Amino acid sequence: MADYEVPEVKEYAVVPMPKDGVMEHLKPFVAKPEFQEALNYVGKKEHPDPKEMPTYVLVDGWKEKAIDKMGDLLGRYRSLQVFMDSCVKCGACTDKCHYFLGTGDAKNMPVARQDLLRSVYRRYFTFAGKYFPKLVGAKDLTEEVVDDWYSYFHQCSECRRCAVFCPYGIDTAEVTMAAREIMAHIGKGMKYSNEIIGKVFTIGNNLGLPEKALANVLEGLEEDVEYDIEVDVKFPLDQKGADILLVTPSADFFAEPHIDGLIGYAKVFHATNTSWTLSSVASEAANFGLFIGSYENMQRISMRIREAALQLGVKRIVYGECGHAWRVGYSFLNTLAGPFDFLDQNYPIPQHICEFTLDKLEKGELNIDKSRNDDKTLTFHDSCNVARGSGMGPEPGGQFRIPRAVIKAVCNNYVDMEKDTIHDATFCCGGGGGLLTDDLMDLRIKGILPRATALINAKEEHGVTHMAAICAICKSQFTKVLPYYGFTMDQIVSVHQLVSDAIILEGQVDPED
Amino acid sequence: MSTLIAVLLTLATLVMIVGLARKALQYRATPAPLKIPVTPAPKTTGGVVIRMAKEVVFFSSLFRSSKWTWIFGWVFHVSLALAFIRHLRYIIDPEGPLGFMMPVIGLWIVQTAGKYAVFGMIIGLSGLLARRFLVARVRYISAPSDYLMLILLLAITISGFVMSFISYVDITGVKIFMLGILNFNLQELPESTALIAHLVLVAILGFVLPISKLLHIPGVFFAPTRNQVDNPREKRHIVDWAKPLDATRGDYPELQPKEAAEETKA
Questions:
Q1: With contacts defined as CB-CB under 8 Å, which chain A residues touch B237?
Q2: Cα A33 versus chain centre, distance
Q3: What is the pLDDT of residues B187-199, one digit of tens each?
């Protein structure tokens, strides 16, 4: 583990005194012009000294371009326009952000973060800000302001926890997305997200895993499972005429514990004789277009799923375990890539794998031996995008009930973490919103503090040994960062990994220990 | 003096109404391209009405976030509503079209509640102001206008308190004056420093309202995070500016059938 300053864990989350600018230095790498252009953005490179690394700077005329873009977004997004106006600075959100709680930087308080953009909005778009800037805290747009934007709008994971507590429903995620979109239009795109989106366009997934490699991985998985339990569980790819297209984050193809979740989905499909396939066109559920606030890029990525469904002639679309992908899938897919009139209307479009599995569990179609998970005491981390930006099942709040019901159906020992850290009050894992990058490691370690505190309490009070999640980003962030808080990587599990461990397939022969 | 106050009040009212209406229309005209209710959210319009009512009447989210802010904020707003209702008698002509409301507004309980609401307003506003000074996080986010707004409201409240409890004003005269403005038949304003201060400050509030954070009044109703129905899978939501994208979305090069793409290369 690299050397980072890990915040001290207290018995319960303590609200720090706000300190100005302690995290100002932390900025993610800027995207190169060629990556910017692939996404219809702009970029400018400066390379005066060939011995030094080049720098990526604001494009010419950036100030006018930024203000124009802000005006454009204000006219196209009611959320942004209303949120810029209606904040009364009541302070309700000030102690709600995990990044503020973890860093103590005043500008990581949601309202202060919004104000970085709001002060410029007021200066150029409101009467009071034009004529009485000092009085209402309006500010000229300068390079320093853009620098602050670049720091602090990349210290927001767009998790929406602040929006739950705001009396006016102001969602900092919407403000962050707008700010990132503005920055991307003046040459300050973020390397991590924008490069990944480029890979989706050229190769098909975030990982840059080409079709052949993907086919190899799936073949290898079939062999592994066959070796393990002597059952020929299939991982079909591009199978025309299959009933279900499974769209899952590409991390499920290689990362731990994600891959164990993928094995779980395959076992559930196998056990229920469900015809399904993965797709090399839609080999990615994740949609980083959401993170950078770009409707156009989000739509272009989503179109791959529609295209794959059409090409393969499937009847249904099911999403694997991925938090923000599920937000895009549940809340936006119909808008971005619909209407899906060519799919079977008897099922939700799209459906979540947890919805699918719980239905099968409730119908008794799966042979489950819960005692196989008796070595663990589980808790569940509600992923922010699932909890506050999506739903499952027919009732509001199904996104909390259904994954827990799946876990409880395959495990005997389950407890929730503290009430103010779960359901719609859940804390972000600290790596969401396009921040799951090594250049922001310091922030990720600090931002996990509220979740780590709750998990440590659950461990000490209830003997919790494992935390399950249904989000690829959460799983990656937890396995990488929770070790700084004394946990081991294998204490983080996929929900369908638990299903996989408890399920008994026909003809299954367990290895002798 | 009467003329000056009458002009000021008339202008302030117009600015306030036109300003707020313009903003509300702007919010309504601005599209919300995506379904972004903060979930769990109601699945029906009726459910959304209940959700919004809880927010607007009880400040339910604020109650969850911060009990102190909620107590001061809620007490202030409810007291303001009671005081507002009490004030309606000054502008409703018993003989006019809204005259039917007078018996209710004139009820002892309504008038008394409105009168003593002034204490609620003072307590609420003082609490909110104190919080701005005392809580470091709130102090950090406060601009001068945030303090001034509370001070303006406090000044209005205190001038009202003075008239109700210390230096009584000829309220029949006030009513005649107000009805005079509404009927374009200007009457004399009773002499009272507190009254003049009260009315001038109220006029300032009217001017400030549509250009300040008091825009939370229309804003609260227009937040897509709260007022949208959570039914994106059941019903396709699409706005006008996104429709052209809908039409051209098959054109992305990476989504062309493979054979066609290879032909283009050749």
A1: 334-335
A2: 25
A3: 999 999 999 999 9
Give A250-272 as a DSSP string: GGGGTSTTHHHHHHHHHHHHHHT
CB A87 to CB B59 under 8 A?
A: no
CA distance B256 to A365: 40
Is B224 within 8 Å of A78 when comparing Cβ atoms?
Answer: yes
A-chain residues near B30 (CB < 8 A)? 74-78, 81-82
**What ranges do the domains of chain A cover?**
33-189, 197-415+464-502
Confidence class for position B96, pLDDT limits 50, 70, 90: confident
Q: How many Å apart are CA A400 and CA A425, to the nearest integer?
A: 11
Q: Is A323 helix (H, G, I), strand (E, B) or coil?
A: helix
Contacting residues of A for B59, CB less than 8 Å apart: 167
Q: What is the largest CA-CA distance in chain B?
A: 93
Q: What share of residues in chain B are helix, strand, coil (percent, to 5)?
A: 75, 0, 25
What is the per-residue pLDDT across B60-89, written as a single tens digit (0 to 9) for each?
999 999 999 999 999 999 999 999 999 999
CB pairs under 8 A between A and B: 231
User: What stretches of A230-347 show up as alpha helix (H) in DSSP?
Assistant: 258-271, 295-312, 323-327, 333-337
Q: In sequence order, which residues have a C-beta less than 8 Å from that of residue A114 and are 6 or more positions away?
A: A83, A87, A170, A172, A175
Q: How many CA atoms lie within 13 A of A153 on its CB side?
A: 30
Q: What is the model's pLDDT at position B250?
A: 65
Element (H, E) at A380: strand A378-380
pLDDT in tens, A250-281: 999 999 999 999 999 999 999 999 999 999 99
For residue A415, the 8-state DSSP code is -
pLDDT digits (tens, 9 = 90+) for A179-210: 999 999 999 999 999 999 999 999 889 988 99
Query: CA dihedral defined by A430, A436, A440, A444, rounded to 10 degrees?
Result: 20
CA distance A9 to A25: 24
Please give the Cα distance from A500 to A260 (Å, whole number).
Answer: 7
Does residue B211 surpass a pLDDT of 90?
Answer: yes
∠ at Cα A424 (A420, A428), nearest 5°? 80
For residues B80-100, one letter each, b for 16 or more C-beta atoms within 10 angstroms of the residue's C-beta and e for the rest, the string is bebbebbbbbeebeeeeeeee
pTM (2 decimals)? 0.95
Task: For residue B120, give how far its alpha carbon lies from the nearest alpha carbon of chain A (Å).
Answer: 18
CB atoms A335 and B35 under 8 Å: yes
Q: Looking at the partner chain, which of B61, B224, B233 has a beta carbon nearest the beta carbon of A164? A: B61
Query: B residues 69-128 near A, CB within 8 Å?
Result: 69, 73, 128
What domains does chain B contain, in order, with CATH numbers? 2-232 (1.20.950.20)
Residue A439 near residue A29 (C-beta atoms within 8 A): yes
Give the span between the Cα atoms of A84 and A459, in whole angstroms.
42
Question: Smallest CA–CA separation between A331 and chain B, in Å?
Answer: 5
Give the SS3 label for residue A503: strand
CA-based nearest distance B10→chain A, Å: 21
Distance from CA of B107 to the nearest CA of A (A): 33
Query: Which residues between 71 and 90 in chain A have a beta carbon less than 8 angstroms from any beta carbon of chain B?
Result: 74-79, 81-83, 85-90
Whether chain A has a CB inside 8 Å of the CB on B260: the answer is no
Rounded distance between C-alpha atoms, residue A110 and residue A174, angstroms: 12
* Contact at CB, A82 and B222, closer than 8 angstroms: yes
The 8-class DSSP code of residue A248 comes to -
CATH top class, domain A33-189: mainly alpha
Interface confidence (ipTM) of the complex: 0.94
Q: What are phi and psi of B99, to 5 degrees?
A: -55, -30
